[in-house]
Amino acid sequence: MNVVTEPILAPESEGQTSVRTLFLSDLHLGTKGCQAEKLLEFLRDHNADVIYLVGDIVDGWQLRTGWYWPQAHNDVVQKLLRRARKGARIIYIPGNHDEFLRDFYGTHFGGIEVAENTIHVTADGRRFLVIHGDLFDVVIRHARWLALLGNHAYDLAISLNTWFNAVRRLFGLPYWSLSQWVKLKVKNAVNFIGEYERTLTAEALRHRVDGVICGHIHHAVIRQAGQLTYVNCGDWVESCTAVVEHFDGRLEIIDWANRPSPGKTNGRPDDPGFDVIPMSSNHHRD
User: Fold this and answer.
1) Residue 183 above 80 pLDDT?
2) Which residues lie below 8 Å from residue 236, measured CB to CB, with a gap of 6+?
3) Tell me: the pLDDT tens digits for 61-110?
4) Which of 130-134, 149-153, 256-260, 271-275 is predicted with the least confidence, judged by mean pLDDT?
5) Which residues neighbour 65 within 8 Å (Cβ) at sequence distance 6 or greater?
6) In CATH, what number does 17-277 get?
7) What kind and span of H or E run contains 127?
8) Cβ atoms within 10 A of the Cβ of 240, count?
């Protein structure tokens, strides 16, 4: 298992927000639900020397049933490859939708490393297991046909979500995820999310680290579970969220779809639209 420990210096990037580390998951490039244009805006605005792609970046499931690859999706790939050429370290941890890359652990593509999982060391010395998380999803592991069926239903919900937000924009209303709201209102889904978080936290405990950073369930959160920290990056289909590590080791969820309008914020942690959760290193374990 790789451990990212090298010192990272703040880059000088005029007009960009510089962070120590960037975590992205569940882009689902190759699907109509992927909000690639918003992702491109986010990547243009944020610069990091280390970028983790935490699974389901390219949706191989969808591409096998029908090819969909607009220019914006290609632009995302080119943007990441350009970051790698300019010296950023990019670690790609495949998920279930891009499982075809699991045959290439330990190899590089255009400067992007492919790994099963890894350990990330924050600036304040905490160690996080970085993993997609699908291997701890009982449906994915033991009832793949049911997962594929659910994937089609999910695609339908995302299509409805796209139309729903198009109408909201006509009335000047901000983006709101209908599909995510429905998911969180279903009791079984809420129970699944809670169980998933507990399972991933237990996996972090097994690895003797301070927390876990994952994806898979499209539900961005930073939650403290005793001495362990559970972090989920969210997605770029429903919520347009990412996790960043600042140069002091602080982890933050960026909600890009609902960010404040330019000129209305100075980027302070208490500004609306930024879910900032400072984490101290006092509970760091050996």
Assistant:
1) no
2) 24, 26, 27, 28, 34, 35, 36, 38, 39
3) 889 889 999 999 999 999 999 999 999 999 999 999 999 999 999 999 99
4) 271-275
5) none
6) 3.60.21.10
7) strand 127-130
8) 22
Torsional class of 73: left (φ above 0), alpha (ψ -120 to 50), beta (otherwise): alpha
Provide the pLDDT confidence category of residue 144 given band limits of 50, 70 and 90: very low
Per-residue model confidence (pLDDT) at position 157: 57
Residue type, 58: V
Q: How many C-beta atoms lie closer than 10 Å to residue 109's C-beta?
A: 13
Q: Strand 251-255's sheet: what is its strand order? A: 108-109, 112-114, 89-92, 46-53, 17-24, 241-245, 251-255, 274-277
Cα gap 85→97, rounded to integer Å: 26
Q: How far apart are CA 113 and CA 50, in angstroms?
A: 11
Evaluate whether 243 touches 259 at the Cβ level (below 8 Å).
no
In angstroms, the CA 143 to CA 180 distance is: 23
**Cα distances (Å, whole numbers) of residue 84 to 74, 89, 213:** 16, 6, 22
Domain ranges of the chain: 17-277
Tens of pLDDT, residues 197-225: 999 999 999 999 999 999 999 999 999 99
Spatial contact of 63 and 35, defined as CB atoms under 8 Å apart: no
Secondary structure letter of residue 136 according to DSSP: G
Contacts of 140 (CB under 8 A, 6+ apart): 96, 134, 147
